[in-house]
Amino acid sequence: MPIGFDDLVDDVMSSIPETIRVFLAFKMGCVGCPIACFHTVDDACREHGFDRDAFLEALRSVTAKAMARPARCCPERSRPA
């Protein structure tokens, strides 16, 4: 999922949980905010006074790393006989 300025903050964090740490690193209060489902990435940057290009680049960087990692699966647990 390529992230854009018009994507909703809640959708970004829900679909790619690794992006939550970007919001936290920028000290944005979006994590758990009830308005996150209404604000776009652009809205959040404007509200918090951050350079939107730098923030979007950070989100995209984390997303690219997350998508490049192979999916983890849980090893099947042994069941008692």
Q: What is this structure, in a nutshell?
A:
By secondary structure, this protein is an all-alpha fold.
What can you tell me about this protein's structure?
- The protein is an all-alpha fold and 81 residues long.
- It has one domain (9-68).
- 47% of the residues lie in helices and 0% in strands.
- The chain has helices spanning 9-15, 20-25, 41-48, 52-68.
How is the secondary structure organized here?
Elements: H1 9-15, H2 20-25, H3 41-48, H4 52-68
Distance between the termini: 43 Å
Radius of gyration, taken over Cα atoms and rounded to an integer in Å: 16 Å
Average pLDDT number: 88
Low-confidence stretches: none
Labels describing this entry:
globular; mainly alpha; single chain; 81 residues
